[in-house]
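User: Teach me something about this protein's shape.
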Amino acid sequence: MAQMLLLSTVVTGALVLAVALVAVRWVDWRGYSPDSPERPGLLARAAGHPAVWIGGFLLLLAVFGGGAVAFVAGASLPTETVNAVGTGLGVATAAVVSGYVFYGTYAAARGRGRPASVAVAEGTTLVGTLFLLAVTVRLVFLA
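Assistant: First, the predicted structure itself:
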């Protein structure tokens, strides 16, 4: 057990070091200009079209609906498949709810005149606090 903990610590430290080296060595920070007049990327242009939002919503609806039907009608499916679909639905639901909470907090903070960095910090703090609350509830009441 202690060997696995030490191995995990070494691997995590190596990953942090690799990310730091990439950020310091491979990015041309001297040539970086946040005010460069570039055209918006494909993702930014697509986010401005309502058809993309409608298509994304319908795709999420199909995935969640199909997953729920497969999970509920799991009698004809192998147990591993039913468990995998249930786990996938739980993770996807948590991701959608977290995104909704984050974006709502971000939009509210921006609407109050906060800078984008503060709005991101508020949204991240709220999502992290809710995650810690969920872990606490799981450990205290469902253990």
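Now, about its shape. The two ends are 22 Å apart (CA to CA). The helical segments are 2-26, 42-47, 50-72, 79-111, 116-141. If you'd like, I can walk through any region in more detail.
User: That's plenty for now, thanks!
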